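#structure-requests
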Amino acid sequence: MILDIIRSTDPVPYREAYDRQKVLHARRVAGEIPDTLWLLEHPPVLTTGIRKDQSANILIDPNIVGAEIVETERGGEVTYHGPGQLVGYLFVSIENHGYQVRRFVEKLEGAFITYLSDSHGIQARHDDEHTGVWVGMEKITAIGIALRERVTLHGFAFNVNTDLSHFKWIVPCGIADGGRGVTSLEKLTGRTADFSEVAENIALIVSKALGYDI
């Protein structure tokens, strides 16, 4: 069993990507394509999940900073996407993972924890209270999965060379705890990462963590 990889090298506007997600999801439900991971970047955008009204977690006028707001059906709360952030959308039959969405998310978290440790010597962790991957009290990978007709939608956002100042536009993922924050691979290593190389490595390690053949 192989995870098909799609890689967009130019930033894709979120609404355009959202429309394509729906097409890829429908094709996976119909059995026209195998389990698939789409890797890409977005221009600046704020997305909201299915939880209660999240307007209080948006701290700026998006028109002033040139970002749009898009409501989605994923789990979680408000999230920022932008240049330098590796976004991965997964169209995966949950039947292949024992119908366990929580376990699927944990496998994704494990993939990034392994990558950060093996490739960069960074000790990351899972958090029992908040989904995603954390280095200390700072989140480096956000994860939000939706499930429709037993096939996943949405996925992860990994801060590679992300402008972290843009996270001041929001209360990231609705977490107002002053002791928590966000970080990036660039911040932790002190150098700008080769984005294409990171994308290749993440594709491989996510495939392996989810049990696909390499």
